[in-house]
Design goal:
The chain is of the alpha/beta class. The protein has 2 domains: 158 residues, Rossmann fold (3-Layer(aba) Sandwich), CATH 3.40.50.150; 179 residues, Vaccinia Virus protein VP39 (Rossmann fold), CATH 3.40.50. It has 9 helices and 17 strands. A 7-stranded mixed β-sheet has the order 11-10-9-12-15-17-16. Helix 3 packs across helix 4. The protein is elongated, with a radius of gyration of 22 Å. It starts with a helix and ends in a 6-residue tail after the last strand.
């Protein structure tokens, strides 16, 4: 298998390194969406380097640019933006507009990624936005593209609000307007797994504290609040754009940017609910799910519960039984199961 299949982040960074000499990096440079393996070849080129990630990927000590995520890039102008291509096609377009909007009038946007990630179709999108597209490198299963900021930029959608979309969704038996943005999970719809979990919620009442972990735009939290608007709801996600949607959809919720339960501190909940992400890029990864299960008892009150929806093939019963007194299937379809794990009333 190629390195793009084994380690796409490293493969992308290595490919970019090959063509840095073709880019003038002496001015202000923005590294966008590349916290894991930013190019090391920037050192000594004289440019002032800034970072922008919409998703939280780790503490600053782990990754350059880690520990911080914002929905939109920092104010420019930047002479160069180096953009690691996002995986979702609609997010690719929004990221391109965002990066072009903070470029200097004669600035250059460099976009790089894998063929399987959509870099070839991204070339057509960039050409429509900017005119000519140069290919700086093409090797293996990836390529590096470069465009100049167009002289006429009125067509750029240069703020997050310009990308806001709304849909009419049924949540807890009620139709309501729902806000989302490109790249947010299940934007504009209720996905099958989330719908199953929402239909199998435990009884929750006023005064209870509930966490929607990996909240996305806030669908599960909205279903919780349909039971009682007096529930104290926290919503946690690593995607700052998804969290912005959740803030608008759930004005009463406390929104937390984070990747783990550690972000909520010492807070204890009556229930933690989640349709957790199971992918890191294009590869399936259960690390976050296993960490959530192991950490949940320390963030639940006595008798509290963790309720998770996953595909049926994921071996959740064994993992849950290691940490909880009671484990049961709350609902299931041919594709998904909702697992409910509960502490004993005197368990800590």
């Amino acid at each position: 298998m190629s390195r793009w299949a084994d380690d796409p982040e490293r493969a992308a960074s290595d490919l970019l390194e090959r063509c840095l000499d073709a880019v003038d990096l002496t001015g202000r440079v923005l590294l966008a969406n590349q916290a894991y393996h930013p190019p090391t070849g920037l050192a000594g080129r004289g440019g002032e380097v800034a970072h922008w990630n919409r998703r939280l990927v780790g503490p600053p000590t782990s990754y350059p640019g880690g520990g911080k995520a914002t929905p939109w890039p920092p104010a420019g102008p930047f002479e160069v933006v180096l953009l690691r291509l996002p995986k979702a096609k609609d997010e690719q377009e929004m990221a391109a507009h965002a990066c072009l909007s903070v470029l200097a009038p004669d600035g250059q946007l460099v976009v790089y990624g894998g063929n399987a990630e959509g870099i070839r179709s991204a070339a057509a999108m960039l050409e429509e936005l900017c005119g000519g597209v140069a290919t700086l490198a093409k090797r293996g299963h990836g390529r590096v593209l470069a465009v100049a900021r167009p002289a006429q930029s009125d067509h750029l959608r240069s703020s997050l609000s310009a990308w806001r979309s709304t849909a009419s969704l049924e949540i807890g038996g009620q139709l309501r307007e729902w806000i989302s943005y490109p790249g947010v999970f299940a934007a504009g719809r209720v996905d099958e797994g989330t719908a199953l979990l929402m239909g199998a919620l435990p009884p929750l009442g006023a005064g209870m504290r509930v966490l929607d972990f990996g909240c996305g735009s806030g669908l599960i939290g909205a279903a919780v609040l349909r039971q009682s608007c007096a529930i104290r709801l926290d919503a946690l996600d690593s995607d700052s754009v998804a969290l912005e949607a959740a803030r608008q959809n759930l004005p009463s919720a406390h929104c937390v940017l984070g990747t783990s339960l550690g972000e909520v501190g010492a807070t204890r909940y009556d229930a933690v609910l989640s349709n957790p992400p199971l992918r890191q890029g294009t590869a399936e990864d259960h690390t976050l799910l296993q960490h959530l299960i192991a950490a949940a008892p320390g963030h639940l009150r006595a008798g509290g519960l963790l309720q998770i929806v996953v595909q049926r093939r994921v071996p959740l019963e064994r993992w849950l039984a290691q940490h909880f007194a009671s484990v049961a299937i709350a609902a299931e379809t041919r594709r998904y199961r909702v697992w409910r794990a509960q502490l004993d009333p005197d368990q800590r």
